[in-house]
């Protein structure tokens, strides 16, 4: 099977999608594609810039990226 068809080989992406669904998509009733697009974009901004991650020593994704650069 192609690598992208095996969830075990892309576990981080699968987990991100699950988190996005749990924390954003499943909590809102979007009234249009535009509303959904904006809501998901806002969640991505929050996830990367304001939400601390345990795996990143309680840093945001943006903070960890700056340290790695």
UniProtKB/TrEMBL annotation:
SUPFAM superfamilies associated with the record: Ribonuclease H-like
Biological process, per Gene Ontology: DNA integration
Pfam family, one: rve_3
Gene3D superfamilies from the UniProt entry: Ribonuclease H-like superfamily/Ribonuclease H
Origin: domain of life: Bacteria
Boundaries of every Integrase catalytic domain copy: 1-69
GO molecular function: nucleic acid binding
Membrane spanning residue stretches: none
InterPro entries to which the protein is assigned, alphabetical: Integrase_cat-core, RNaseH-like_sf, RNaseH_sf
Protein name: IS3 family transposase
Species: Falsigemmobacter faecalis
